[in-house]
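One example given next:
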Amino acid sequence: MLFKADTLEAIARGRVTLAFRYWRRPSVRAGGRLRTAICEIAKETVEPITPTMIGEADARRAGCADRADLLRRL
């Protein structure tokens, strides 16, 4: 899971608390931690979802302006 530096800064400050990724098959499991140059990230849950399950609040928690912005990034 690769995060850009600005996203890592937002995670470290607590402004980003959720991440979405598009995978053909999952490459991350729940549990454990991911150490980065800026912060350490806890991988609490990993769940398959569909785009229709993503709401506006989820998109904002992921650091996006809105749901449409998040879907464009995916």
Summary: The chain has a mean pLDDT of 92. The two ends are 13 Å apart (CA to CA). Residues 16 and 61 are 5 Å apart (CA to CA).
